Every structure is written in C-alpha cells, then in structure tokens.
Amino acid sequence: MDTRNPIAETSPDSTGLEAELRCRVARVQGGDLAAFDELYRLTRNDVARALFHLVGPEELEAAVKETYAHLFDSLPKHPEGARVQPRILAICAKVALRHSKRSHSSSLDADANADETCRLRRAIASLAPKARLIFVFHEVLGIAPEQLSRALGLSIDTFRSHLGRARLAILSAMREPITEAAP
Fold it and tell me: How far apart are CA 106 and CA 91, in angstroms?
C-alpha cells in the first residue's frame, strides 16, 4: 500500500509524487483516461482517510465519488505545471463542507464504555463543519497551516483562530465524563 500523502506538502517525497500527479493530469488532458485511473489509485486512500474524518462512514463513498467527479471535471482547465495536490485538497474541502451542510450525524457507537478513540471521533464529529475540516486536515493529516489557509481562502490569522477554537472544543469534549446510555 502506498503510504504517501498526496495532499500534504510536508511529506519528504511529495515533490516526486507531485511530479507523478502532474504527469497523470497532462495525460488525462491529452485524452488518456487510463491516466485518471492511475491518479485515482495514487490518491484514493488519503482522500478517503481525510473525508472519513469529515463526513463520517455513512457518506464516505458518496463524498469520495463526488471528489473525483469534481476533480475529473476540473482537469481540462488545470493549468500546465500547476500543482495538483492543492487542487485535490480544495476539492476535498468543498465536498466535505457540502456534505456537512446536508447532514452530519455521527454513526459512532453510543456505548457508554467507548474508548478514547471513539470519544475523540465523537468530539471531532461535534465540531462545526469548517472547524472540523481545519482540525482534521491540520491535526490528523499534518497539512501545513499556510497551505490550508490558501486552499480554504482564509487569512493565516483566521485559520489559526478556527484551529484554536477547534482544539479547545476537542479538549473540552474529551474532559467530559462518559455518561450512561439509556437502555
């Protein structure tokens, strides 16, 4: 399995991956549809991982399909030599926000004895859509604040403000005692 993150600029081999992605985009623009399948295989795991944290498991496949449909539609207009990774990030963000606005209900187990991971997932799911997006892309996927703020069209100060509030909400939710579920 390819463990490189096609969205983050912080991975050591992102320049090599970016070159691979640009090559696939150029081939798609030239009419080679098999190149889009290759682009999909190179990026799908990380796109799905990001979207899982943002839209939840119920809407994951729909969000992944929508992301790649938008990516495919945008490729003919993708400027030659332009970075592909930020485009994927921006499309993921827009799709996740659209799905969050439709309805974001966490399907996490309501068991009163939930472990810390489940509690963290619940805390993330309880964040407002934009805060959840910023928290997951930065804290879970490790994407740099500068890259995220550009992709989301936010000033760096606004981005940091959203991130700070998200962190506080997560900490507060994690400190709350686990309550017994009704039978």
Answer: 22
Question: Cα separation of 134 and 147, whole Å?
Answer: 11
Give the domain ranges of the chain.
Answer: 14-175
Number of neighbouring beta carbons within 10 Å of residue 100 = 21
To the nearest whole number, what is the mean pLDDT of the chain? 80
Tens digits of residue pLDDT in 136-165: 888 888 888 888 888 888 899 999 999 999
The predicted structure's pLDDT at residue 115: 67
Beta strands in 77-138 (DSSP E): none
Return d(Cα 8, Cα 14) in angstroms, integer: 7
What value, to the nearest 5°, has the Cα angle with vertex 84 and ends 128 and 160? 35
Please spell the DSSP secondary structure of 50-89, one letter per residue.
HHHHHH-SSSHHHHHHHHHHHHHHHGGGSPTT--SHHHHH
Q: CA angle 159-161-165, nearest 5°?
A: 120
Asked whether 97 and 50 are in contact (CB, 8 A), the reply is: no
If one counts every other C-beta atom within 10 angstroms of the C-beta of residue 51, the result is 25
What is the pTM for the complete model shown? Answer: 0.66
Give backbone dihedrals phi and psi of 41, rounded to 5 degrees, phi first: -65, -35
Which amino acid, one-letter code, is at 6? P
